[in-house]
Write a structure and sequence with these properties.
CATH architecture of the largest domain: 3-Layer(bba) Sandwich
Number of domains: 3
Structural class: alpha+beta
Radius of gyration: 23 Å
Shape: globular
Length: 476
């Protein structure tokens, strides 16, 4: 019977295992074994319960617009557990010259689609507001080569927009810098809009009107999560998988293409498989594939990662009443703070805390501050509490605190990323039975990882003649 090895037990690897399990239960002659180096499965999807509050160590939700995570949740019996963010209360602040300034209405990501709220906002200088007005007449432009997000945004709106919006927004999502991240890889839709319409503002407004005309239903919430936290997704997945096929605390030392398949060595044992799915960070995949293909390993090793620290602080109802309304705030680098952002979790997802509790979740690290991971938890808490006092006047002693460190967790899609993916795919095709999955390729969010793992499973099944090739998109 054909056997498939999966290396990596994060959400990408578990999604691949679930796709294979579905095929096996439908009668396909296939077996799988999943290897995970750590003692637990699920990667960064970790939920703790403290003082009747749900505390997320990693992602607290996923973008609703991307359907793959929600679709998987429905398949594994969690459809009635999906919850949306509290969007009627959604308000985001930007720390500007030491004060919180609300993002004006009509900003879609960083593109203004309403004139008056932007004109009267203290977030931008008069010069930037004039650039915004002139941007509506921006001619179509198709860049001859890949460029950074900062270059594109500055061309349309000037450097202040990069500093106050583009950079902090991308820091929150990627832990990266607008001056490093690729427009084509990170904001492909913006590049397409610029090429077709010129003005991003006009293009975004046209897209919004088209969506409003096509659907009379109210807009879905921006974010989706699970009632019992994101780990609920991992626990449900595990209940659908063959427990004997899941090997934790089993780091893989090497993978070697051999006899039309792959020899996988983990610990003191080696085993032969017909196909291999590597669902680890690209850096780990690079190390594993060093003996199989040095060029492929080198390309994978060029995909950079940033690290992050999340700090959660719980407070009583007095603090809850004193905090600003809305989802939280972003901190531009020019404000010279260690914090990148903070979320008022009790406002974003009211299900996360009882009414007499407040949850403040802070983010540090990113590509400019890897050093923060070397600080002790006490040092990190002192930094966070000091900055919360300076920014929102929060001096109360927290009821509880939690600090989580994630080293090399977020892939950085730098300029040239899509071209690198093309080279990786050409080299991968020379190694039969190999598929790659994870956040290093086409998206770092939970839905992207689910899709990545599912498609990797389809790819190896197709290679073994167990699935139609028509259902498998190109990789990566």
């Amino acid at each position: 019977m054909p056997r498939i090895a999966i290396i990596g037990g994060g959400i990408s690897g578990l999604s691949a295992a679930f796709a294979l399990e579905e095929k096996r239960r439908a009668g396909a002659p296939v077996e799988y074994v999943l290897f995970e180096s750590s003692p637990r499965l699920g990667g960064v999807l970790v939920t703790d319960r403290v003082e009747d509050c749900l505390v997320e160590a990693g992602p607290d939700s996923f973008i609703t617009e991307k359907p793959w995570a929600a679709d998987l949740c429905r398949k594994i019996g969690l459809g009635d557990q999906l919850i949306g963010s509290n969007d009627p209360e959604r308000k985001t602040y930007i720390l500007t010259k030491g004060k919180l300034v609300v993002m004006p209405d009509g900003l879609m990501f960083m593109v203004p689609t309403k004139i008056l709220p932007t004109v009267f906002s203290p977030l931008f200088s008069l010069r930037t507001k004039m650039r915004m007005a002139a941007e509506w007449f921006h001619p179509p432009h198709k860049a001859s080569a890949d460029e950074t997000v900062a270059e594109m945004v500055e061309r349309h709106y000037g450097p202040e927009m990069v500093d106050r919006l583009a950079d902090p927004l991308l820091s929150g999502v990627y832990g990266g810098e607008a001056s490093q991240l690729s427009v084509r890889a990170v904001l492909a839709r913006f590049a397409e809009m610029e090429a077709k319409h010129g003005s991003l503002g006009r293009a975004m407004l046209a897209a919004r009107k088209k969506m409003a005309g096509a659907a009379s239903r109210p807009a879905p919430p921006l974010f989706t999560s699970l009632k019992e936290g994101m780990q609920q997704m991992v626990d449900a997945l595990l209940s659908h998988l063959d427990a004997d096929a899941l090997h934790t605390s089993s780091p893989v030392q090497s993978v070697i293409p051999q006899d039309g398949g792959w020899t996988v060595s983990a610990g003191y044992e080696s085993d032969h498989f017909d196909a291999l799915i590597i669902a680890t960070p690209a850096l780990a995949a690079s190390t594993l594939l060093q003996l199989a293909d040095e060029k492929l390993a080198r390309e994978l090793g060029e995909i950079r990662y940033s690290s992050s620290v999340t700090v959660t602080l719980g407070y009583d109802e007095t603090v809850r009443r004193s905090l600003p309304p809305g989802f939280g705030f972003l901190v531009p680098r020019s404000e010279r703070r260690r914090m990148l952002a903070a979320t008022f979790v009790h406002n974003k997802f009211p299900h996360r805390a009882p009414e007499n509790r407040a949850i403040v979740r802070c983010f540090l690290g990113g590509s400019r501050d890897e050093e923060i991971l070397d600080r002790s938890e006490d040092q990190i808490l002192r930094i966070v509490r000091s900055e919360l006092q300076q920014i929102i006047g929060l001096t109360a002693e927290p009821l509880f605190t939690r600090v989580y460190k994630w080293r090399a967790a977020m892939a950085q899609y730098r300029v040239g990323h899509l071209e690198r993916l093309q080279r990786i795919e050409a080299l991968r095709q020379k190694l039969p039975g190999l598929a790659l999955a994870g956040n290093g390729f086409n998206g770092i969010g939970v839905p992207d990882c689910v899709r990545s793992g599912t498609e990797a499973a389809s790819r190896v099944l197709t290679a073994m003649g167990l699935e139609s090739a028509a259902s498998v998109p190109a990789q990566p």
